[in-house]
Structure formats: C-alpha cells, structure tokens
Amino acid sequence: MSLPAASHLLRSALRTQLVPVANLSSKPAKHVISAGEQAIAMTVFFTAILGPSGWVLAHLEDYKNKKD
C-alpha cells in the first residue's frame, strides 16, 4: 500500500460520521454521588487497572530468571 493510498484512506475514515454510542442527556443526574463515593470508585478503578501491571513490572526479573 503506497503512502498516498494510505493518506486517502485515513482522510476518508476521518470524514465519516460515527453513530453516537452513548445516549447523552442534558438533564441533571438522578442520583447525586458524594465526593467520598467518587474517591472510592476512582481508587477501585486505579487498583483494578494499575495493580496487575504493577505486579508484573515489579516481578519482571523473576519472570526473566525463571527456569522450567
């Protein structure tokens, strides 16, 4: 695939209109979430996402030296 063809493909992909996936609304929230609940949710998300990757990075040398 040549560069002009790739450039044309990228431009046509950017021009297309995507169908909105989320149902957006301008109404106020039905349930108010407190700052404490937000902090707990963010902590859980960060732990779930960064915890496993941190574990692997912390034990990378063990995985390299493991002999079966």
UniProtKB/TrEMBL annotation:
Record keywords: Membrane, Mitochondrion, Mitochondrion inner membrane, Transit peptide, Transmembrane, Transmembrane helix
Membrane topology: Single-pass membrane protein
Name of the protein in its database record: Cytochrome c oxidase subunit 8B, mitochondrial
Localization: Mitochondrion inner membrane
Transmembrane feature ranges: 39-58
Organism: Eleginops maclovinus (Patagonian blennie)
Major site of localization recorded for this protein: mitochondrion
CDD domains: Cyt_c_Oxidase_VIII
GO biological process, one term: mitochondrial electron transport, cytochrome c to oxygen
Pathway: Energy metabolism; oxidative phosphorylation
Tree of life domain: Eukaryota
Family of the protein in this entry: Belongs to the cytochrome c oxidase VIII family.
GO cellular component term of the entry, any: respiratory chain complex IV
